[in-house]
Amino acid sequence: NPFNVAMFLMLYLVMLVGSTGFILLDKEKVDHETLRAASVDGFTDIANRETFFRRSREVLSLCERNGETVSCLMIDIDGFKKTNDEYGHHAGDKVLIDFAENMRRTLRSSDIFGRYGGDEFAVLLPQTDERQSMEVAERLRKAAENAVIVDEHQIRYTVSVGSATIVPDMETNIESIFKLSDNALYSAKTQGKNRIASALRFAD
Questions:
Q1: 110-134 pLDDT per residue, tens
Q2: Degrees, nearest 5: CA angle 112-118-120
Q3: Distances (CA, A) of 15 to 4, 7, 23, 28, 137
Q4: Can you give the chain as a three-state secondary structure string?
Q5: Strands of 112-117's sheet, edge to edge?
């Protein structure tokens, strides 16, 4: 029957198109998940170092073209090794995750932040002057003072924050800004930890 043959072919084509669409959607989902896995820190679920620096370079370039101030924060969790030694690495892991959540709640959607490595985090604050940067640094410092509960233990941790503020020019690179903020972080650590420090520099 020609009619039945035509109907069969039509149904077959519908099934074929549907299957192809499903395969394409599934591939798109896999590609998206693969891309995301390569761009985020698998532990804290925030940007990894490579992604953070790539986004920061893009923002820095934009601020340079517009003549806008940009600030950078380097953050270190105080006594992280001691936490691991006393309570176990799972406790240290909980501290890292907790602080990453603090960053999400505290920072603006336009701010770039990520895990710099180990127990260090980094933040780039576009259109942010020294005073504003220090205010953000203090909010992050205070946010870390709440206890983390691990195996019924209350674990309190603190962070030290170094801030650097510049107006970038054509010779400014992201590494130089982070060196400034890292120097400020070192100052905060040597002054007793659980504090913030600034290294203000404006480009000529």
A1: 999 999 999 999 999 999 999 999 9
A2: 45
A3: 16, 12, 12, 20, 57
A4: CHHHHHHHHHHHHHHHHHHHHHHHHHHHHHHHHHHHHHHECCCCCCECHHHHHHHHHHHHHHHHHHCCCEEEEEEEECCHHHHHHHHCHHHHHHHHHHHHHHHHHHCCCCCEEEEEECCEEEEEEECCCHHHHHHHHHHHHHHCCCCEEECCEEECCCEEEEEEEECCCCCCCHHHHHHHHHHHHHHHHHCCCCCEEEEECCCC
A5: 112-117, 120-126, 70-77, 159-166, 196-200
What's the pLDDT tens digit per position in 72-106? 999 999 999 999 999 999 999 999 999 999 999 99
| CA distance to 54, 110, 180, per residue, from 33 (Å) | 19, 23, 35
CB contact set of 31 (below 8 Å; sequence gap of 6+): none
